[in-house]
Amino acid sequence: MACADNEDEVDVSDVWSSKRLLAVLEKSALISFSQARDFYANRFEMIQQYKRRRGKSGEPVIDEARDKPFLLIDAIVSLNLKRRDNPSKTVDEDSIFQALAASWNIPFVKVDPLKLDLNLVTTTIPISFAKNHLVLPIGVSQGELTVATPNPFNHEVFDDIARASQLRVNAVVSPRSDIIKLIEEFFGFKRSIAAAEHQFSGPTVDLGNLERFIHLKSADELPSNDQHVVNAVNHLFVYAFDQKASDIHIEPKRAVSLVRIRIDGVLHTVYRLPKNVHSAIVSRIKNLSGLDMAEKRRPQDGRIKTGKNDVEVEIRVSTIPVAFGEKVVMRIMDPDILFQDLEHLGFSSVDMAKYNQIVSHSHGLVLVCGPTGSGKSTTLYSTLRKISTTRVNVTTIEDPIEMVHEDFNQIAVKPQLGITFGSIMRNILRQDPDIIMVGELRDLETAENAIQAALTGHLVLSTLHTNDAPSSIIRLMDLGVPSFLIQATLRGILSQRLVRKICNNCKEKIEIDASALEAMGLATGRTGRLSLYQGQGCQKCRQTGYSGRTTIHEVLPFSDTIKALTVPDADLAALTEGARAEGMISLRESAIERLMDGTTTYQEVLRVTSGGNL
Ligand SMILES: [Zn+2]
């Protein structure tokens, strides 16, 4: 190994030398020998190029003194190289620090922000110290404080922390950008909460270390009084966006207030707010969402527009009084999620072709069905965006409007004002729409109006809370729609569910007998040993083994055969059989395809497509 020479012993002063770094990357099979050699020969030019690129990108300025040891790592990461040991992954900061930690024989920790103790992180050391030395206290046990850092050889720094905290210090290795980000997030949030708590409780409250911590700050770092709550709420939003959360809950309890966020369908408690800050935070949110701040006894609904990077994000806010105060639930309406390319929604090519055909009609009724939280809104919005052109007028009637899009005319239902689906439907036909989206066909009046619009030359898209495509036809008739009107207007039905995807970071192969799956109620139509996948659970997926979700579909074009089966005493079994004979791939089959191609697990397929769910 040309770049390693005789460096078998760790010389602390030399631990960040380019030669040693590249040797570790080569030895751990992240890069090849020739790459290591080339990088070593061109290291100065690589760093210069990286600095120039970074200067143009508007990213935070490099702190020369602090960041110098890491510049070659940054330069390599910026190349997005394929890993030599696993070309499906790139040489990223995580893999580099993992390799370094292994070579130093020091544990590598990918810090999970959801598991960090806000108080421990922010009261052990001041933020300026944390930032300058890239150290983040992450846990304490039996007199020992664990500190995550990209540079575990900073012994003087650990001595300082040990003196200040009166604890022994154990350093573990974490990627540098994680540490920088977490320091900003946690100290920012804590500073805001602590300052707000101070402001709202007067000088008698004992803030202990926090008091001292706040005094350490220079005057210009401390924002104006009102600003603390503003900052805390902003931090909360940024944090939720970062974690790709779909909802934020703020729940007042007797002594504290819990902040919980929902990720891939599961709630996680992320903060415990001091009780006296709760109402200030809630007031700020009510103010932002245009709600009546004085009204605390009645439920209210509002919305907030805010920015996530360059994208405008809408947050739907609902407040409701509970025993210990007002509970707030915020749903994050992320346009990146609600408006997608239809092609990216997980359709198989066969189903995609069928669905495109269904929505290409100039008039008629198209139904998207599934339970709450099955991604219907995303499908409808994405469909509308695809079929809306400057030559058509798209009008939506929603309860409430989920996501505002300037290309659509969106109307909200307000039953308390007598503005119902039915009354809007009657009136909008005069507005000459071409395409109408109706939030849900929940009663006969709405269904009749939708059918009327479909009969008079409009394309109407709507949803039904049914389990599968064929049963939607029965549901329409149960609502009281005559079968001849369904025959005259229906174009097709899409049924769907969301399934969690296996985390790519901890995916592993498993072998299982098809008969074992069948015994659990999952007939795959295959025999013998099956090679499937599962997530082992890692920091990136919060030990769940899953990350993100995809959609499974069942597409039923309203063909002549299905039309002929849509008679007054139509039978679900006959409709289903007819649909199958025409080649409809069921939700279960669609899920099994995702199982066999390694997207999801058999447990997830069973969970989503079993029993009452299907
Ligand atoms: Zn994972």
Structure notes:
This protein has 614 residues and is an alpha/beta fold. It folds into 4 domains: 18-104, no CATH class; 113-181, Type II secretion system, protein E, N-terminal domain (GMP Synthetase, Chain A, domain 3, 2-Layer Sandwich), CATH 3.30.300.160; 200-210 and 220-333, Beta-Lactamase; 338-498 and 550-587, Rossmann fold. 41% of the residues lie in helices and 22% in strands. Helix 3 packs across helix 5 (71-77). Mean pLDDT is 85; it is low at 1-10 and 201-225. The strands form 4 sheets. The chain has a 7-stranded mixed beta sheet with strand order 12-11-13-14-10-15-18, sandwiched between helices. A hairpin with a 2-residue loop joins strand 8 and strand 9. The chain has 25 helices and 18 strands. The longest helix has 26 residues, at 176-201. The structure holds zinc ion. The site of zinc ion has 9 residues, from loops. Zinc ion binds at residues 503, 505-506, 535, 537-538, 540-541, 545.
